[in-house]
Amino acid sequence: MSRITRRTLALAGASALAAPALLPRHALGADARIDFVHLWSGADHPVQKVIRAFNEKNTGVTVVSRQDGTTYETITQKAMASIAAGRGPALMATGWKLGDFARKTLGAQDFRQIYGAGRTDALLGKFRPQVRPLASVGGVPIGLPWAMSTPVLYINQTQWMAAGLDPQAEPRTVEELYPMVRQLQERTGKQGLIYEVNEWLPQAFIQNAGGDVIDADGRPVMDSPAAVKGIEAFVQPRREKLWKPMTISEMIASFQAGAIGVMASSSARQSGVRQAATFDLRLIQMPGLAGHPRRMNSGGNFLAVYSKVKEQQEGAYKFMEFVASREGFELWLATGYLNVTLNDIPVRPGNEAAHAQMEAGLTSETIWPGARGLEALTVHIDWITRIVNGAVSVPDGLRGSREAVEKLVSA
Fold it and tell me: Could you give all domains of the chain from N- to C-terminal order, each with its CATH number?
């Protein structure tokens, strides 16, 4: 997996920011409408602000917001059904982890075929070069690399200080974090810690123990000794009763209500968490594992075009041009996602930890290969869930995942 840093993302030359030629409004027809499928809820979510700002420009294209679920897996499953029925979305926020699946199974369009090489290069040239491959499959550009996040720690600073912990403490390893969480739980009576139960956060633990989920050759290796060590560290607070597993929506609601002291989650959740939290909130970098180099992962999505109707494809291009502009991206960064464009936008207050983590270097999230990549991802999450719930041991659960995923990715 390639390393992604702010330094390596830098690209000299004002020519890279040159705007592509726009089609005149009449070329799009009157009031072309495109469905934009995504996973973010709430009328005040930044995605809605981006859509409204674009629509208010009266370009001849109207973007219709369509939330089809709250996870990439859910919206991808629904898109698969709607595409099969001939009612697929024009544009969809597609998880990077499902890029191979999107191309091979959903039919995400090759930008060069629908827009030509020049217009494709002009559009993607607004993004930093190290992120462009995240929205490509086999060298084929199938999306706009819109959203990059990374796991960080959300700390209820009010509880942290009430527990007598150093208000400036930033544990660099989980070995440093867990005793602090125990002290918080014992002194405040609140749950000390909460982790997401999915494939993404466990990937950080596997990588920070020196392992991988899928290796560079596309082989499942999530049951290596290093991976087992990482997941043992992941479930340790569960065994020590510092962490009571919940769904992600329950986790966020409980943290916002002040029932949990520390939450490890995506930096992209920041806008929603801050909006509802009634306590002093602090974000710090996600701790690694003692004795191992930090090797944190990124996550996020790209905007993929699924419509084969020329008018909708052109409407999607116009919207993506706005998304990539400074105006559009500045609205988007209120989420807590990272600036992956060449636009010079100051780091927003509260986003410092995520940006520092990107500065230190991030890998991509696991890209699930093959036409059955969505199934492979789902199976792996199921095995991680069994491990967290204590239904299987870490070695047995990771071996079960590897064996199941091997069958799917080789199909």
Answer: 6-148+299-355 (3.40.190.10), 151-298+368-409 (3.40.190.10)
State mean pLDDT over 360-379: 94
Burial class (CB in 10 A: 0-12, 13-18, 19+), 347: middle
The pairing of strands 91-95 and 32-38 is parallel
> What per-residue string of b and e applies to 278-289 under the rule 16 or more CB within 10 Å gives b?
eeebbbbbbbbb
Average the pLDDT over 66-82 and give the result.
Answer: 94
Length of the chain: 411
378 contacts: CB under 8 Å, gap ≥ 6: 73
List all residues 6 or more positions away from 405 whose beta carbon is below 8 Å from its beta carbon.
220, 222, 376, 379, 380
DSSP, collapsed to helix, strand or coil, labels residue 275 as helix
Alpha-helical segments (H) within 58-156: 72-84, 99-101, 111-124
Q: Which amino acid is at 299?
A: G
Express each pLDDT in 239-278 by its tens digit.
999 999 999 999 999 999 999 999 999 999 998 898 889 8
Residues in contact with 203: Cβ distance below 8 Å, sequence separation at least 6, in sequence order:
213, 297, 365, 366
**Whether residue 359 has pLDDT greater than 90:** no
Residues paired with residue 141 on neighbouring β-strands, in sequence order: 136
